[in-house]
Design a protein that fits this description.
This protein has helices at 15-24, 46-60, 73-86, 95-105, 117-122, 124-132, 146-151, 158-168, 190-197, 206-220, 241-252, and strands at 5-9, 30-34, 67-70, 91-92, 110-115, 137-142, 178-182, 202-205, 234-237. The protein is α/β, with parallel strands linked by helices. The strands form two sheets. A five-stranded parallel beta sheet has the order 4-3-1-2-9, sandwiched between helices. It has a four-stranded parallel beta sheet with strand order 6-5-7-8, with helices on both faces.
Length: 269
C-alpha cells in the first residue's frame, strides 16, 4: 500500500502547501490535519504550540506516513527540531524553503517578512535569511488579524482590504522588493496583499518551495510514488468541519476526491 505524506497545520493555511504538492507530485497521497478547533497558533506560547504539534503528529503516525510536513510557520519555528527528534521519518518545515526563494529573487537586498506573532517573535526567518546572506536587510511585521480572516473564509472584502492595508501598508516606505508570506494562511490573501504592496514587490509563498523540497527528499530516498491512478486524499480537522470542508473545496477545486472518512473529526482537543 502506498505510504502517504502527512501534512499538518494550525487550520486551513496548510492547504496552500497541500495544493502545491498535488500539482508538483500528483501521484502522492496526502493525509491532512488542520487544527481548526485551536487556531490561531500565533498568540500561543511556544510550549503550547509544541504540545499541540506533538499531539497531531501522534495522531498522524497511525497512517504510516513516509514524511511529515509541518505546513505552519509558527509550528515550524517552535517545534520542527522537537518533532524530528521524535520520529524516524523525514520532517519538513516551511521556513527554510521560503527563505531560500527570497534570497534568490531579491535585488535590493531588502526582504520583508509578514507572519504570526509567534513566527515573527521567534526570529526564525531572520536567522534563516542571514544564514544564507549575512548582510541581508530584513523588515518583519506580525499580522495577527490575517489568520482569523482566512479561517472564516473571508479572502476578498472591504474589511479584508482595510485589515491588510492597516497592517502592512507602512512597509511600502522601505526598499523591499521581496515579501515572504511567513504564514501558510497568507496566500489566501495574495490578491489583497499584492494590491496593497504594489506590483514592484514579489510575494514569496513557501508552499512552492516546500513542495520542491519534498520532491528532492523523496527522490533522494527513492521513495516517490508511482502508478497510473490519482490517489484518494484524506482531510481531517478538529473544529467546524462544515466550514473546513467549504474552504477546502473552494481552495483545491476539482483536483481532489474526497474519501468517505474525509470529514471525520479526531477528538484530540
Amino acid at each position: 500500500m502506498q505510504q502517504p505524506i502527512a501534512i499538518l497545520d494550525s487550520g486551513v493555511g496548510g492547504l496552500t502547501v497541500a495544493k502545491e504538492v498535488m500539482r508538483q507530485l500528483p501521484l502522492e497521497k496526502i493525509i491532512y490535519f488542520g487544527d481548526t478547533g485551536r487556531t490561531p497558533y500565533g498568540p500561543r506560547s511556544s510550549e503550547e504550540v509544541v504540545r499541540f504539534t506533538r499531539e497531531i503528529v501522534d495522531y498522524l503516525i497511525q497512517f504510516n506516513p513516509k514524511m511529515i510536513v509541518i505546513a505552519c510557520n509558527t509550528a515550524t519555528a517552535a517545534g520542527l527540531e522537537d518533532i524530528r527528534s521524535r520520529v524516524e521519518i523525514p520532517v519538513v518545515g516551511v521556513i527554510n524553503p521560503g527563505a531560500r526563494a527570497a534570497i534568490g529573487l531579491t535585488t535590493t537586498g531588502y526582504v520583508g517578512v509578514i507572519g504570526t506573532e509567534g513566527t515573527i517573535k521567534s526570529g526564525a526567518y531572520e536567522q534563516a535569511l542571514r544564514k544564507l546572506v549575512p548582510q541581508i536587510q530584513v523588515i518583519s511585521e506580525a499580522c495577527p488579524r490575517f489568520v482569523p480572516l482566512v479561517e472564516k473564509g473571508n479572502f476578498r472584502s472591504p474589511e479584508t482590504y482595510e485589515t491588510v492595508r492597516s497592517s502592512i501598508g507602512h512597509l511600502r516606505h522601505f526598499p523591499i522588493d521581496t515579501l515572504i508570506l511567513g504564514c501558510t494562511h497568507y496566500p489566501f490573501l495574495t490578491e489583497t496583499i499584492s494590491e496593497v504592496m504594489g506590483q514592484s514587490v514579489t510575494l514569496i509563498s513557501s508552499a512552492d518551495e516546500t513542495a520542491r523540497e519534498i520532491r528532492m527528499i523523496l527522490q533522494g530516498k527513492n521513495n516517490l510514488a508511482s502508478g497510473q491512478h490519482l490517489p484518494m486524499h484524506q482531510f481531517y480537522c478538529s473544529g467546524d468541519h462544515q466550514l473546513f470542508r467549504s474552504i477546502t473545496k473552494q481552495w483545491l477545486g476539482r483536483q481532489i476526491q474526497f474519501s468517505p472518512v474525509v470529514w471525520q473529526i479526531p477528538t484530540i482537543c
